[in-house]
Amino acid sequence: MTEPATLAVDVDGAARTTALHYGADGRRSRRAVLVLAHGAGAGQRHPFMTAFARGLAAAGIDVVTFNFPYAEHRRRAPDKAPLLERCFRRVVDEVRTLPALAARRLFIGGKSMGGRMATHLAAHLPSITGDQLYRVGSVSFSILASCFSVRVHVRFVVRGSWFLVRGSWFAGSA
After folding, report:
1. pLDDT (tens digit, 9 = 90+) per residue, 71-106?
2. Alpha carbons 168 and 95: distance in angstroms, whole number
3. 3-state DSSP assignment of residue 147
4. Contact 65, 53 (CB under 8 A)
5. Can you name the residues that pair with 107 across neighbouring β-strands?
6. Are strands 133-139 and 105-111 parallel, antiparallel or unpaired?
7. How many CA atoms lie within 13 A of 91 on its CB side?
8. Which residue(s) pair with 8 in the sheet?
9. Contact partners, residue 72, CB within 8 Å, separation at least 6
């Protein structure tokens, strides 16, 4: 499998981050892109994140992972939620400017904290970008913590189902 393409993303005037695009297997393309956020304990190059992204790419789904600013700068403590959400939004915006990905169906998700930020973003994404969001996914248990605060609003935003994957390996989707 080829190495992912590196993208530089400007989060705001002071912060930048790196995103990686794992291109879909062209023979199996599902014309979809997943923007996938990492959890609090490890960045986008963690073996779980890379294996998950490569597996989905092999199944025909483009995947873009990224580091939140604290992970990009190798700090241990996560940034505050507004900066995490702003970073996630900017990565989605960047994905939508790429000719190869702009017309793909948009999915967002994350592992643990990244999944929680995906639920926050899902509540506001169409009003920010005009995109139709197809799915919100979380590879964790922590989605439940934020689910209650955005569930009612998200029902009107997301066309389709949510999926949860528990454990260390991809177990399926809705």
Report:
1. 999 999 999 999 999 999 999 999 999 999 988 988
2. 27
3. helix
4. yes
5. 34, 135
6. parallel
7. 36
8. 18
9. 16, 17, 18, 43
Confirm whether pTM is higher than 0.85.
Answer: no
What dihedral angle (degrees, nearest 10) is formed by the CA atoms of 98, 12, 14, 87? -80
Strands 62-66 and 16-22: antiparallel
Q: How far apart are CA 127 and CA 64, in angstroms?
A: 22
- CA dist., res. 152 & res. 166, Å (int): 23
CATH for 22-164, among 3.40.50.1820, 1.10.10.60, 3.40.250.10, 3.40.50.10490?
A: 3.40.50.1820
The tens digit of pLDDT for each residue in 102-152 reads: 889 888 888 889 988 988 887 776 655 555 555 555 554 344 444 443 333
